[in-house]
Structure formats: C-alpha cells, structure tokens
C-alpha cells in the first residue's frame, strides 16, 4: 500500500522512525510528513493565525520526507492537498508511534496523534493512530534522554512497530473510504511478539486538576494526572486491556456521534 505517516512527537522521534522501518520492511511505499518539533496535546488543532512552513527533509528513512512547523493536522492536511506528488495517492493515513499511551475519553480528544489520524479520516481515508504505553518512570527517562529509548525499550518498540506493520493492512481493508473512522491502537508495556489484540472501548475517565495552583506570577503549570476511571466493571476498556498486557484496539466511529 501507499501510506502517509505522521506523528505528534516530531520528525526526529525514533518511535516514528521504527514504525517507518517496519512498514517499509513489510513492502509498503511511504511518505512521511511530520511536525518540526513536538506537538503533543494539540488534538486536531490547526495553525490559524500564522503561515505554516513545509520543507523537504532528509532523515535516512528511505522515503519522501517533509518537515512542517505546525500541528499533526497541519501536516496531514498540507501533505494531502499540496506536498504529495500526483502519482502518490495514499491508501491510508497512519499516526505514531506515540511516546506514551492515548486511551480513555479524558485524553483521546486531546491527542495530537489522534488529531493527525483524524485529519486523514476527514479526507475520506482509513486512519490509524498507534501509541506505545509506558510506565511513568520509563516515560520520564525517555524524555530526560531527549526522546531516545534505552536498549530494552528500543527492543519493545521494534516489536510494537512489527505489530503495527502486520495490523495496518487488516485495519485498512476493514475500513471503507469516507467512513469517518479512526482506529486507535495502543501497545502494552512491555509489548511481546505474542501479545494479543483485544477490541476495546475508551475508558470513562474524569480528568480534573490538570494544572497547578497559580504561582506568584499568576502562571499555572500542567500536571500529569491519569484521572478517575469511572468505567463500569463489565466494560472491556482500553486502559484495562493495556493493564492486562493486551494490545488495545478501539474503533472511533464518528458517524455515531449523532445517534
């Protein structure tokens, strides 16, 4: 297939690069259009009040690559409408692999990873968001090391990318064009070759107190808070599946919002 790949952690993120390598090894033809720098928690926002600059980039990915100084949604929109050559019509848009999980109603709508995939769905294409769950300690180490995983996590990441390469044709084939569907796939930590895919629904999470009290200068800082999970015990949720070691697959069907 021909696939457009983006993310929200930035073009230089190794998590993106491992996804690209696994997809190319599986025989797919790719174009990568990713943010110049990290754009996490941007949701589906677009850069409305300033021009957005896009430029060809070389990152050794073995495919057409662009850097865009905007959001993931900017990347996909500009790529599909202006950057990709006429003979490259993507079969799907992929976003990720994200550094950290993207699960539950409290966080899915805020995710830049999901926002990039959603932009593909808005163009009538199958869309998949891939994310890698991490413990808070591992996440902090990755961020302290400038988004570079240690050798153990790097091996886990490669396994997750291999799962993504295997799942992508199946999910694309199951998604008709112009269906307004985004597949949200989260890999557990650790992800193993034998990890099993489980169909899930978003956990019902309330997320209060995401910002600190005001400092002396009136500023508030974001505080990571996993929220309060109020999901009924009989729901097979994305958070629950990851905690049990499964690969979580949630189908976000936006056609059902009005039903």
What do these coordinates show?
- With 259 residues, the protein is an alpha/beta fold.
- It has one domain (2-201, 233-258): 3-Layer(aba) Sandwich (Stationary-phase Survival Protein Sure Homolog, Chain: A), CATH 3.40.1210.
- Helix content is 28%, strand content 22%.
- The protein contains six helices and eleven strands.
- It has helices at residues 14-25, 72-83, 112-122, 136-144, 151-173, 238-243; strands spanning 2-6, 29-35, 54-56, 64-68, 92-99, 127-132, 181-187, 197-200, 205-206, 228-229, 247-253.
- The strands form two sheets. The protein has a nine-stranded mixed β-sheet with strand order 3-4-2-1-5-6-7-11-8, sandwiched between helices.
- The radius of gyration is 18 Å and the shape is globular.
- The two termini are 33 Å apart.
- The model has no long low-confidence stretch (mean pLDDT 95).
CATH topology: Stationary-phase Survival Protein Sure Homolog, Chain: A
Q: What overall geometry do the principal axes of the alpha carbons give?
A: globular
The overall pLDDT, averaged over residues, is 95
Largest sheet, spatial ordering of strands: 3-4-2-1-5-6-7-11-8
Please work out how many helical segments DSSP would assign. 6
> Based on the structure given, which CATH architecture is correct?
3-Layer(aba) Sandwich
